[in-house]
Write a structure and sequence with these properties.
360 residues; alpha+beta; conserved putative lor/sdh protein from methanococcus maripaludis s2 fold; Elongation Factor Tu (Ef-tu), domain 3; OB fold (Dihydrolipoamide Acetyltransferase, E2P); 6-stranded mixed sheet; 6-stranded antiparallel beta barrel; rod-shaped; coiled coil; RND family efflux transporter MFP subunit
């Protein structure tokens, strides 16, 4: 019995020890790594840029209508078709115009015959009057008929000239080199003044149309350079403010600004393309870091800060306004601190960084 009690006591002592051995966890710590990464200094004094969205528009957009009232006989172009200045785009039924020309021509011939007769009568009476065989009032009446016939002739000539001028309006020619963007009427429709048939745009000179709030309008002037980013063009375009429309959009309290764009020989701009205009308004006092340095964790963003021993420490940031490539830091970082320029998910606090130049 004594032996059993001793044995049980020994088991009670040993069992807790065995249980502790089973729950021992080996903690493996990650050793600091060294990476060759580009670093950049958080700085102030960067360009104070104001970004507005907009779209590409043509500098010339025209709605073509007829100066005559008549049925459309032929439309020679389709939407999207390139056109040349002077090219015939539309032909109208010119039967009424041709009829008016013929009528005016007949009236002109009659007026010419009347002038010939009146001149002959006036010359004959002038001869008789000089011989004393005609009265003075008869000569004056003959001269009056001659003058009236001449006036009628001039009127007939004017009517014929006007009728012939109308003939050219039976054809609508393009006033510019560009592209057809819309067809409002079809063959057989009745064309009339102020009733557009086609809408065309010049494709030689493009504008970028955007708007500015009234608070920023004083910082922008005609001729100032503006950097424009169009989604369809892989590089920035340097344009210049061409026009500031001095009429406010009362719903948005903004003013329309149009920026002239240089020709892009290798990139075809099209009307309606979306983009962003970046207005440089001076220099900002905010701390700026590149967007490429940001790392998102749990919906928040931060950067890896490099200390004097070239070790990194992750730091949360409160961010402010953004630019296409940069972002302002409202809290969490001071000017002059070094940060990893291109975020690396492999980095951990305490890792070392061998600085490389920032890639251009």
């Amino acid at each position: 019995m004594r032996f059993v009690l001793i044995h049980l006591c020994m088991m009670m002592v040993l069992l807790p020890g065995c249980n502790n051995q089973e729950n021992v966890h080996t903690v493996v710590s990650r050793q600091a790594q060294t990476y060759q990464l580009a670093t950049v200094q958080a700085s102030t004094g960067a360009k104070d840029e104001y970004v507005r969205t907009g779209r590409v528009i043509s500098d010339q957009r025209l709605a073509l209508s007829s100066q005559l009232t008549g049925y459309i006989r032929e439309i020679r172009v389709q939407e999207g078709e390139n056109i040349q200045q002077g090219q015939v785009l539309v032909r109208l039924d010119a039967s009424q115009v041709e009829g008016a020309i013929q009528q005016a021509g007949a009236e002109l011939q009659a007026a010419q015959a009347a002038v010939t007769d009146a001149r002959t009568d006036a010359e004959h009476l002038q001869l008789l009057f000089s011989q004393g065989h005609a009265a003075d009032n008869e000569l004056r009446k003959a001269q009056l008929r001659q003058d009236t016939a001449l006036q009628t002739l001039h009127q007939a000539q004017a009517v014929l000239t006007t009728a012939k001028a109308q003939r050219q309006y039976s054809e609508i020619r393009s006033p510019l080199t560009g592209v057809v963007v819309d067809r409002q009427l079809r063959v057989g429709d009745l064309a009339a003044p102020n009733n557009p048939i086609l809408t065309i745009e010049a494709n030689q000179q493009w504008l970028f149309s955007t708007s500015l709030p009234e608070q920023q309008l004083a910082n922008v002037s005609v001729g100032m350079p503006v950097t424009v980013y169009v989604d369809a063009v892989p590089h920035a375009i340097i344009g210049h403010v061409a026009r500031i429309v001095p009429s406010q959009d009362t719903s948005t309290h903004t003013y329309q600004v149009k920026i002239s764009l240089p020709a892009q020989p290798n990139q075809r701009l099209l009307s309606g393309m979306f983009g962003r205009a970046v207005f440089t308004l001076g220099q900002t006092a905010e701390v700026i870091v590149p967007k490429s340095a940001l790392i998102e964790r749990g919906g928040l963003q931060g950067v890896f800060v490099v200390d004097n021993q070239h070790k990194v420490q992750f730091r949360w940031l409160r961010l402010g306004r953004e630019w296409p490539q940069q972002v302002a830091v409202n809290a969490g970082l001071s000017a002059g601190e070094q940060v990893v320029a291109i975020a690396s998910p492999q980095l951990r606090d305490g890792d070392r960084v061998v600085a490389l130049p920032v890639p251009r």
